[in-house]
User: Fold this.
Amino acid sequence: MAKYIFVTGGVVSSLGKGLTMAAIGMLLESRGIRVGMQKLDPYINVDPGTMSPYQHGEVYVTDDGAETDLDLGHYERYTDARISRASNITTGRIYSNVIEKERKGEYLGATVQVVPHITNEIKAAVLKMATDDVDVVLTEIGGTVGDIESLPFLEAIRQFGLEQGRDRVMFIHLTLLPFLRASGEIKTKPSQHSVAQLRQIGIQPDVLICRTEREVESDMKRKLGLFCNVPFDSVIIEPDVEHTIYEVPVILMKQGLDEQIMHRLQLSGRERHMQPWIDMIEQVKTTTDTVEIAVVGKYIALHDSYKSIYESLAHAGIANGVKVRFRKIDAEKVERDGAEPWLEGAHALLVPGGFGPRGVEGMILAIKWARENKMPFFGICLGLQVATIEFARHMCGLSRAHSTEMDKSTPDPVIDLMSEQQGVDRMGGTMRLGAYPCDLVAGTLAREMYGADRISERHRHRFEVNNAYRKALEAKGLVFSGNYAEKGLAEIIEYPDHPWFLAVQFHPEFQSKPLRAHPIFKGFVRAAVTHRDVLAKSGKPSVRMEPT
Ligand code: GLN
Assistant:
């Protein structure tokens, strides 16, 4: 029978609750305990698929094709938990399930209410995670305690604790200890209030994890324990990390959080196995060799929009023994100024995914520059589509080639809507989503990097390379090195007459881990290092330039 841990957050949002939860999952796994990871989000959208990246950051896609919160990316990077559609449930999903049941008459004439019907649906969503292969289900409650929206979730987990028995359910509350510069003090009052609010609902946290910028003295921990009714040892301090977010599990480990959880939930496991992870962090801390990768994208202002891509590049850096620096460039600025002032001196170019026309001409300029200047280029999703447009325009002489997403009346629609997308008029959950197999062509860069003939990668798109143009593109040297055979879809393109030029229609960034860098990211960063060295030898600038 599974045990359960609920993670709530207080005082402010963006405390790194998802990261902390991922770190806890990882610590438990390191002791041989099998975890399930889940996030409950209190907003009304059925899933985040329809939200703007500025609102929500990246939409994380699971193997089974769910569009989910980016915290699930942390869960997958830190743990081996099986992440699926059941791993992210929103208020919108809960209500739509309940309303559907009501319409079917399943409530047998009852008045349908928040308690018990909505709370029952929430509890059922948690129980669904307790499959045979899971010892501990970790569930993060999105939002902050005190929000109107989170109330049904907190009520549901309170009931859950009572029903399952308190020895099988644990509550962990993450909070902030703000530092007041004026008085030079760390303050505990907001945390006291947030725990008081939890207790009002009937939840007594077993462990308090306190995010802070500064050192915290024992006295302060004692005070927090006293006011929040938590034992001294269960007040865990999580200071800001200096080098890498991958330090968080080690910080929690050093304070014995895993031991406490094992004891509290009566779990039996083996000794911790954290050494490879600890070695990896040590390597990150001491690496001085750097490589700089330009990322030209649409939602560039917000780091979270391309979270998994930056993480995957960092993993590839670890695998290559270098630190990866990012030169984040708004594609519209490249459109305005041309590519050279922005790309010169960088060691490689990555163009990530996106939707709609804004900035696309800038991406085209950037890719053209990288192709002509032999700078390694990696395109992801929209990045593949734009690379195809660039190649068609400048190598195949189709000067008005475009994607019908951007220009419906283009004479050369080299990127077009997939046939199964014709006539789709609902936005939510209707793209080509989730994992599909891809066959790799022998003798290509892709085949060499993956070291396999058939791979599986996750997708999120509506448009595709128009096969009517395949021959024309191939005639000028573009190679379709990965394909989804069943539907004849192009999945990977590459250009062998270049040191490293490759783009993928899928999202490899969802399958990279710190100790298991994704093969394409790894190859790309290696190519960037090579290019850096070539630049250095040629006497061309290889320094960071800061155009405005
Ligand atoms: N807008 C493009 C499409 O829908 C690319 C999507 C993406 O980059 N995720 O096909």
User: Anything to note?
Assistant: The pocket of glutamine is lined by residues 353-355, 381-382, 405, 460-463 (CB under 6 Å). Residues 519-538 form the longest helix (20 residues). The radius of gyration is 25 Å.
